[in-house]
Amino acid sequence: MKILTSVCLLFIVGFCTSSSQAQDIHYSMFDMAPLELNPTYTGYYAGTFRIGGIYRTQWAGMSISSPPSTSNNARSFNGYQTPSAYIDVPFAIPRKGKPIRNWAGVGISFYYDAVGSENGATLSNLAASLSLAYHLGLGQKGNTILSIAAQGGIMQRRISGDFTFEDQLLGGGAATTDPLYMSALGGGTKTLPDFSGGLMLSHRGRRFGLEAGVSLNHFTNPNYSFMTPATNDDGEARLPMTTISNLIMRIALTKKGNLFLKPLFFFQNTINTTGEGEGLSAFDFNGQLLLGIHFNDMQDITLYLGGGYRASGDAIARIGLDVKGLKFGFAYDINTGTQGLNYNVFQNNNRAMAFEVALSYVAKIYKVPVVDEVLFCPRF
């Protein structure tokens, strides 16, 4: 009861502190991108090292039948491409004469997010981060764990290609004087620091387990504008702080635990401390339910089937497979509504579909104990 009460308080704090903006990557399989979800997942596993990645593509191949130009020719939109990768390592913290219950983790993660069109116009974000986490085992068994973590890195935004600006449309194709072009399109890049932190309380039981985490991102409100004060009155566009809350459970349906449910919940919100973008809300919620089927203990094979729904109007179908330390996941999204999209503009009828592919591997490298040979001398 104490564990559940603590988890509920932690989750409510993370959920109630905010309202959101779309400056962060949003994976449907958020549990397959652990260091992007919350830095407390750094080193949160049993093994020597872990390496993984996830790739998402969204809205690829959409054709716009009425683009904002003087000619009304069809134009292709390449959609969003978002790959990310990570590697992390746990380190045991021994206690003299006592079993090891506490450990630390260090990891690095990368992600690249790009959107573009057929004429080569591209806006991209590249980020690299270093994560440090500490995991404290609580209780007599140490199977209730309090984790705290910090993450820091750099983010680089880049804009390039052939763009058409409003003054060109109104001026019949004359050269643009838009300040964004003047300051950024000559190979414009913007590099900024980015910091975040996280807290998680988890419990690992034989028939029930859960992970409840909260992370705070962009808490320095970095300026991500391409423009400078010389080309813009303010010259700033502050990245608002965001909170991400997640709740992941494992509920056994049989005594052996070979059949279980895995509910997953994700909330993302914004804490607007800059005064910019007030009234804008892009609250993101992702709720899923997976059925896990464990086949045998020798091969350690588990199959996952299920799906869920996102607040943006996306229905999600998922399938996954675990084989020993190897994890594979595939997700397919289809937009069921028209939020933020005018489908009359698009020539094809792919309904803003997206898919994700994820893969991770936990290596377990242990020293083989050396056993001295013993020669038994029988008595006569």
Automatic annotation (TrEMBL):
Keywords assigned: Signal
Pfam families recorded: PorP_SprF (PF11751)
Highest taxon above the source species: Bacteria
Signal peptide (from-to): 1-22
Protein name: Bacteroidetes-specific putative membrane protein
Native organism: uncultured Aureispira sp
